[in-house]
Structures are given as C-alpha cells and as structure tokens.
Amino acid sequence: MFFALKGENFNGNTFAEKALKEGAKYCVVDEKEYAINKNYLLVSDVLKTLQQLATYHRKQLNIPIIALTGSNGKTTTKELINAVLSTQFKTVATQGNLNNHIGVPLTLLKLTKDTQIGIIEMGANHHKEIELLSNIALPDYGLITNFGKAHIEGFGSIEGVIKAKSELYDHLKEHNKLIFVNENDLTQVKQTEEYNNLNKFGTASTSDSVIELVSTQPFVTIRYKEKIIKSNLAGTYNFNNIAVAIAIGNYFKIDLNNIVSAIESYVPTNNRSQLIEKGSNTIIMDAYNANPTSMLAALENFKQLEKNYKILFLGDMFELGSTAEEEHQNIVNYLEKNNIGNTFLVGKNFYKTKVNITSILKFETFDDLKAELQLNQIKNKFILIKGSRGMALERILELL
Predict the structure, then answer these.
(1) In this protein, which residues make up the domain named Mur ligase central (predicted)?
(2) Alpha carbons 210 and 246: distance in angstroms, whole number
C-alpha cells in the first residue's frame, strides 16, 4: 500500500500511478484528481490516515509497547533494550532513528501477530510532538533517558525541554501505565514523585534494579547481581543507557546470563561512542549529534580517560536558537579551565568564540580544518570527535 505523503519539496500524490504500476495494491491519496479508480483510496489527509491506521493496527494486535524519549542516548538505549529483550522475545524496534510523526507509525505497522514486544523511540524538537506520538503508539511502558540542552530553539529553555519530554510521562500517568525511572536522575524522580506505578533503577539500594558503575577505562563496566558486565560503549554517560536495558530485562524476567551476553555483545555503530583504531591513532567517534549537555559529558569523560597525547575535534552544536553564542562560549571556557589537550574547533558558532589559550585553534569551515590537517599529519594520538549531525565530522577520519 502506497501512502502519498507530502514534504516541502514533493507531493506524493504525483507518484501514486507509478506506485501502482510497480506493485502497490492500493494508493492512499488526498487530492481528488489522483483518485481515478477503485485502487486509489481518497482521504482528507494522508499523513493523518497513516497515523490512524498505525494506532488501529497496534490496538488490534494489543502487544506490549515500550516507548522511550529523551535529549541524549535514545537510539543507543533503544538498541540495548532490544538486544536484551530479543534474547527471549520476538521484538520489533524502531530502525535507526525513525522516531518522528512518520517513523513511529511505520514502526507500529511492522508489528505482526508473532511480535511479542514493540520498542518505540520517540524524538521531538517542539512541544506537543511527544504527546502526538504517545497518542499514536499508546505505550504500556515508558522511560525518558535524560533531560538536556537539546533543541532549545524549539523548546525555548531547559524547563521547556523537561515539559516537552514529560509529555510521555503525562500520557503514561493518565492511563496508569508503568514508568521506568532512573533514581540517579533527580529530575526524573521529581517528575514522577506523586505517581505509584514505577519501576526504579540506579545505584541506590532502594532501586528495583541496583546497578553499579565499576569502570570507564576505556569502556563502561558494570556490576549487577554480582555479575561484571563489560560493554563496548565509551563514556560514563552510557552507564545510564545500559542500566535502563538491565532494568527492563529484569522486569521482563530475562535470564541474567542473557542480559550479560546481550550487553557485552552490543557494538555501537553510526558514529555513536565508537572506539576506532586508524593508523597510529585511537579515536572516540561520537559525531552522530551534539548539544551542550552531551558535549560536556563527552569532554568530562575524555578528560578522565588515562591516556597521553589527547586531541579534540569539536564541531558546532545546532538548534540552540538565541543561546547558541553563550553555549559555545561555555564549552570554550570549560576547555580553557581543564586543558584536556590540543583542540580544533570547527563551525561558524565556535569561530565566533573568544579563545585565550594557544592550544585551541578555530576554523570557520570544514575545508579550513581540512587544509590544516593536510599540512600537519596527526600521529600516535588519542582523539575525541564530537559535533552536531550537520557538521558531519566523521569526514575527519579520512584525513587522519
């Protein structure tokens, strides 16, 4: 079935005839002139119809749905939850980060009568988006990875972020569904303190799943029920992502050995906290995305790693609106105070910052950085690469 969706630069209705010729049984269109025979289903709004059909399908199957959102770590957390649950259940999870008003319905429509659990990632950069996605997916369980300074342009402030992400909590509370809460995150605790249907995890002895951070050198190692779990994920911030997966595995009675093997065998891809060896250099590639919260977390983690000869490549953070100048300067101030290693800043926002130490170099464009790296080869270094998706800093790998 072909859904004639519209975008800024295309009208799906114009492709309907071609879709039928290429094997679609039906085409859902919302412009009358394209509905020329019984194989065209005319509706008032194709996108809304897709969303309604996904909800109908989800209700028919009545499969437990876990929903997650948050400012950072959504996709890694979703992958870890899926890795753990799929050891004993047939799962369907969001592919990649198809987590918006189109991606969520498409994931729900992938559920079949054989599916035992659905795992739905929800992303948003404006208020009411998580509310919409919750009403489409109707989750039975939910969690928020964290509240950070992401998409400030759309949310207005950190308080706006908390309010927007908590639309998932609001939906779950309204329908008396279970919320997984990280007890180490005081904002999560506060947002759920008057609600009883909770499953708590964290380092506190009061948690339903007590999980301890053992080490982050160079990967996160965890202790859970006297088992040591050695992950392939770099960065202290990944402790919480792994802890969620353990807590959900525990709740769904996944065998402890399966939880351990699922987490230990998970290897990150897509430039998310990957450890890469390239020539004589060792690289933490964390260039999938960035905001002030995740950037500071990455820097703090990199600072603590016991390595010599560190180099940092940091790219602009996008969607910060009027706070962009201040937030980029905050990162520079942190770097000046901590002096982790020689730093290359790239992007228009970083280029505008005031820098007072010679170990920080600024480049307005990627091409400017490229010219520098072609003149000065980097060897035998421990490197962090971090920036927003639009900066595409993974291109640096080709220059090392």
Answers:
(1) 69-248
(2) 10
Distance CA 332, CA 321 (A): 18
Going by C-alpha positions, the residue among 337, 332, 146 that lies closest to residue 236 is: 146
Angstrom distance (rounded) from CA 369 to CA 363 = 6
Counting every residue, how long is the chain? 400
What architecture is domain 274-399?
Alpha-Beta Complex (3.90)
- Specify whether the CB–CB gap between 400 and 279 falls below 8 A: yes
Q: How confident is the model at residue 151 (pLDDT cuts 50, 70, 90)?
A: low
How many angstroms separate the CA atoms of 315 and 309, rounded?
Answer: 20
Lowest mean pLDDT across 29-33, 220-224, 375-379: 375-379
CA angle centred on 42, ends 38 and 47, rounded to 5°: 135
Beta bridge partners of 69: 144
Question: Token match 């990280």: residue?
Answer: 182
Domain 48-265 of CATH type 3.40.1190.10 = yes
Q: Are 201 and 243 in contact (CB under 8 A)?
A: yes
- What's the rounded Cα separation, in Å, for the pair 322 and 226? 48
- Cα→Cα distances 327→242, 268, 332, 342, Å: 28, 28, 9, 20
Residue 193 CB partners (closer than 8 Å, separation 6+): none
Residue 197 corresponds to which tokens in the numbers above? Answer: 């249907």
User: Could you tell me the pLDDT band of residue 124, with boundaries at 50, 70 and 90?
Assistant: confident
Predicted local distance difference test score (pLDDT) of residue 10: 94
**Residue ranges in 98-151 assigned as alpha helix (H):** 103-108, 129-137
- For residues 236 and 213, the answer to whether their CB atoms sit within 8 Å is yes
Helix spans in 167-217 (H): 167-174, 186-191
Residue 150 has pLDDT above 70, yes or no: no
Inter-residue contact 171 to 124 (CB < 8 Å): no
Per DSSP, 6 falls in state B
pTM over 0.85: no
Which DSSP string do the residues of 213-254 spell out, in sequence order? EEE-SSEEEEEETTEEEEEEEESTTHHHHHHHHHHHHHHTT-
Domain layout of the chain by residue ranges: 2-44, 48-265, 274-399
| pLDDT score for 160 | 81
17: tokens are 């005839």
Half-sphere exposure of 236 (CA within 13 A, CB side): 14
